[in-house]
Design brief:
10 helices; globular; 2 domains; two-stranded antiparallel ribbon; 69% helix
């Protein structure tokens, strides 16, 4: 939002495709970089000192950090929604099988799928990705095998925060406004999607997100918009009762 309005002076849609692509690339890249660095700083000063603490401590810290960030943004920009330029006008649509689809929705889907595929390839095919997977599975063993734990965890926080930044840009492009507590609901649904799909499974988390969206949209279509989230968490509870590892998670035995 700041990049578009203060740096480039944008207030609405852009018709020039070349300039539109430039604005989108710069805005998304700048947001991902800034929030990625913020994620690294949070890991360094809030999480690293608690690395050997009981598991409940990092969870409480995560909640505390989220409230700190929300209040900082509320002080800077106020409690009301802040309008953001919708660079791709909602009036620009195309017809497909009787449905009118905005081009901005196509861009959002392509960007989201591209980021998910890129993350999947990075985690599975790069040296740092293998270090992330080994650290998540057994931190002490990974360190004994030469993995730089601090660097690996910091890179993980950078990627997570950068992807959250891209999600925030998408939110602004689609709805035309953002709010200081935007990340709380999104984070809650993201966590639910990860649990539903299977913790540690990127593809499962993505499909879990689609399942959540499907149930919420279906509930709204039948006039039960207020019950959408209740339905999602009901499905989550049922799944965890019958499949604790999630829909696509792998059941692992306890280590000796």
């Amino acid at each position: 939002m700041y990049t578009l309005t203060r740096v480039f002076g944008q207030t609405g849609a852009v018709e020039d495709l070349g300039y539109l692509a430039f604005l989108l690339i710069v805005t998304i890249a700048a947001t991902m970089l800034i929030l990625g660095v913020l994620g690294v700083l949070i890991e360094r000063f809030a999480y690293r000192p608690l690395r050997n603490a009981p598991r409940l401590a990092p969870l409480i810290t995560a909640i505390g950090i989220s409230f700190i960030l929300q209040n900082i943004i509320q002080i800077l920009f106020g409690p009301s929604p802040v309008n953001t330029p919708q660079l791709i006008a909602l009036s620009h649509r195309f017809e497909l099988l009787g449905a009118s689809i905005p081009y901005v929705d196509v861009f959002i889907i392509v960007l989201a799928v591209g980021l998910m595929v890129g993350l999947q390839q990075f985690v599975n095919r790069t040296k740092l990705g293998r270090a992330m997977r080994s650290t998540a599975q057994d931190r002490e063993a990974a360190q004994l095998m030469g993995v730089d734990i601090n660097r690996t965890i910091a890179a993980t926080f950078f990627l997570a925060a950068a992807l959250a930044g891209a999600a925030g840009v998408i939110q602004g492009l689609h709805f035309g406004n953002i709010k200081f507590d935007l990340g709380f609901q999104a984070g809650l649904k993201a966590f639910t999607a990860a649990v539903l799909g299977g913790i540690g499974n990127i593809t499962g988390a993505a499909l879990g997100g689609f399942v959540i969206g499907f149930f919420e949209v279906t509930a709204a279509a039948f006039g039960f918009n207020q019950w959408g989230q209740a339905l999602v968490f009901t499905v989550l509870i049922v799944v965890l009762i019958f499949r604790p590892a999630g829909l696509f998670g792998q059941q692992l035995g306890e280590r000796a």
